[in-house]
UniProtKB/TrEMBL annotation:
Keyword Transcription appears in the UniProt entry: yes
PROSITE patterns: HTH_ARAC_FAMILY_1, HTH_ARAC_FAMILY_2
PANTHER family for the chain: ARAC-FAMILY TRANSCRIPTIONAL REGULATOR (PTHR43280), MMSAB OPERON REGULATORY PROTEIN (PTHR43280:SF30)
Gene3D superfamilies assigned to the protein according to its UniProt record, in alphabetical order: Homeodomain-like (1.10.10.60), Regulatory protein AraC (2.60.120.280)
Keywords, comma-separated and alphabetical: DNA-binding, Transcription, Transcription regulation
GO MF annotation, one: DNA-binding transcription factor activity
Segments forming domain HTH araC/xylS-type: 176-274
UniProt cross-references to InterPro entries, sorted A to Z: AraC-bd, Homeodomain-like_sf, HTH-like, HTH_AraC, HTH_AraC-typ_CS, Tscrpt_reg_AraC-type_HTH
Protein name: Helix-turn-helix domain-containing protein
A Pfam family matched in the record: HTH_18
Domain of life of the organism encoding this protein: Bacteria
Amino acid sequence: MTENLNNPAIFSTIPSPGVLICDHFNQLKGYKVHRSEGTKDWLITYTISGKGQFKIGDHVQLVKKGDIAILKPKTVHQYATYSSHWEFIWAHFLPRETWFDLLKLPEMKKGLLYLGVDQPHLQERVLGSFQRLIRDNRGFQSFAKELSLNALEEILLAVNQWLQTNDKNKIDLRVQQVLGILSENLKESHSIESLSKQVALSPSRLSHLFREQVGDSIMATLLSMRLRHAARLLEFTNRAISEIADDVGFSSPFYFTKQFTAFFGMNPRDFRKKMIDKTV
């Protein structure tokens, strides 16, 4: 067993927020760390494969693929490999002041936050952010440390966003996939049939599920997304109205103007003028 009191993160006196030290481990059975005084910083781990075990007092928390565990400062703890191996990413950090709401994750035992992420798309995003965190933390460029901290902030924001929809209001994964397809491909032509094939549902089932959870039909939602993005382009760019119409998936500028006027209560030209006048 390792007492691990000489970890540089434990006695760090750095007052400013930052990722102090981080790495990617793949430890075999028998690996164990014990800290009888905890640490002065926060410790976050993300399990990639295998299983690990955290022990806080008499509480034992197993972690598997996709699980995030966070130890608060001064938490007496022990963690170890539980299966044949435990592959995980870890980081000691000092949080920004704005993070404390983001760090209000489920607390399994005083000092131990735990969240099991079971959605593949979110696991992929979190893993990618952790990999950037490590890469940037080891860099020497001017903004490397800040980029590392931003990667950690992205992880906390992403899991908190997921938590907000992980209760009674949780949106079905297939509906989320459809929303993602629409937002990433506003210009493309979409049909209920083509979307339903991409998420392995029948057109009728997808239409019913989408309306039930989003509150509107797929095509009405797509129209709203296109028009809202067009409004941002009108406000923040000098692109011609006909070009903006094409950018968001309207082949006819006339039809675009008709739909935009019905949605916002004014035509695109007047909308742009109003936005410009607001900033003067």
